[in-house]
Specification:
Length: 196
C-alpha cells in the first residue's frame, strides 16, 4: 500500500514483511506528513520517541495487517533517527499509537502533535545495518534485512562524524559508496561501526 509515491523525500525503509515505513526529516516535514496521512481518512500505526526530537514514523499498511515485527522494526528506526542517536545513547523509548488518536491544536508549534488515549511504549536498542533497498543505500533495523549477504555493516551511535564515516566504511566493506549516499543513509550525529 504505497499511498505516498514520493516517499523517497522522507526518511524511509521497508520492514521484513515488505511494509513501507516513512518519517519526517524535520519538524516541517513531520507536520506535512501527518497532515497528508490524516487527510487519507484511514488508520495507521505511528511512532515518535517519548522525548522530543524524532521523526513521526508511519507504517503505510492496513492497520490490521501490521504484525509485531513491523512494530519493532519501525520503533528501532524511529529511535535511531531521533535525538537519542545524536546524543550517543544506546537505547531510546518509542511511543506507539494510531493516526486516529493524534490531533493538532493551533497553539502547537510546528512538528508538535497531541495524542489522545493510550500510548504503548517500547524500549529499543539503537543500532542499524547498512543495506540496499530499492537499489538505494539505507541504514535500517537489522531484522528488516532477510539475508546476511545483504547486510553490509552494522552501525551504532558514536563519535565519528557521519561525513567521516565514508572512509571507515570503504575499509570495511567490499563496495563503493558516494559521500552523498552515506550522508543520506545514516542518522544525524556521530556513528561508529559496531562489532558483535
Amino acid at each position: 500500500m504505497e499511498l505516498i509515491e514520493d516517499y523517497k523525500k522522507y526518511k524511509w525503509f521497508f520492514t521484513s514483511s515488505g511494509k513501507l515505513v516513512i518519517g519526517g526529516k524535520s519538524a516541517v516535514q513531520n507536520d506535512e506528513l501527518l497532515k497528508r496521512i490524516k487527510s487519507l481518512d484511514k488508520d495507521f500505526v505511528i511512532m515518535h520517541t517519548a522525548e522530543p526530537g524524532s521523526p513521526f514514523s508511519i507504517i503505510l499498511s492496513d492497520i490490521n495487517k501490521v504484525i509485531k515485527e513491523d512494530i519493532k522494526e519501525c520503533a528501532i528506526f524511529t529511535g535511531c533517527f531521533s535525538r537519542a542517536w545524536r546524543s550517543g545513547k544506546k537505547k531510546a523509548i518509542v511511543d506507539v499509537f494510531k493516526v486516529s488518536k493524534i490531533n493538532k491544536l493551533k497553539s502547537m508549534k510546528t512538528g508538535t502533535w497531541g495524542v489522545i488515549g493510550k500510548i504503548q511504549k517500547l524500549a529499543v536498542n539503537l543500532e542499524l545495518v547498512l543495506t540496499r533497498q530499492k537499489g538505494i543505500l539505507r541504514a535500517v533495523p537489522e531484522a528488516s534485512v532477510k539475508s546476511d549477504k545483504e547486510k553490509l555493516i552494522k552501525v551504532c551511535p558514536g563519535k565519528i562524524d557521519k561525513k567521516d564515516m565514508l572512509s571507515k566504511l570503504q575499509m570495511e566493506v567490499d563496495e563503493t559508496f558516494s559521500s552523498d549516499e552515506v550522508l543520506s543513509a545514516l542518522p544525524a550525529g556521530g556513528a561508529k561501526i559496531c562489532r558483535k
